[in-house]
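Technical annex, item 7. During the second reporting period the consortium partners agreed on a shared format for inverse folding records so that results from different sites could be compared directly. Each record opens with the tokenized structure and is followed by the designed sequence. A conforming record, contributed by the partner at site C, is shown below for reference.
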């Protein structure tokens, strides 16, 4: 019976479909957790006296996953001053649910 799927084939196909869908969902989440999504905040984290965060920066800060933010902070890719400034963004943007959040050696201030 070539061309006709048996019960095992249908189950296997369904499992494969679920795996593909889960992979796509993970890729979508990963796409929102990347450096480019945080670019609107660059001027608010650079230097000893950074600019106030823009509305577009705060929009990102208010919606970014805390684990994404933590991964960026812990990556070791940024100067200490930049990390310290980034830790202040949730408070500056009015995102209070991150106050006290611990990320490795870092803590988001209250």
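Designed sequence (site C submission):
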């Amino acid at each position: 019976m070539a061309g006709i799927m048996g019960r095992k084939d249908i189950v296997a196909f369904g499992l494969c479909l679920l795996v593909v869908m889960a992979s796509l969902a993970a890729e979508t989440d990963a796409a929102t957790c990347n450096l480019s999504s945080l670019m609107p905040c660059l001027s608010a984290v650079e230097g000893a006296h950074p600019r106030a965060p823009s509305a577009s920066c705060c929009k990102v800060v208010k919606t970014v996953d805390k684990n994404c933010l933590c991964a960026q902070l812990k990556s070791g890719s940024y100067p200490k001053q930049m990390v310290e400034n980034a830790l202040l963004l949730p408070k500056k943007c009015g995102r209070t649910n991150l106050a006290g959040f611990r990320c490795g050696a870092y803590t988001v201030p209250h």
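The chain is about 55% helix and 5% strand. Confidence is low (pLDDT under 50) at residues 9-31. All partners now use this format for quarterly exchanges.
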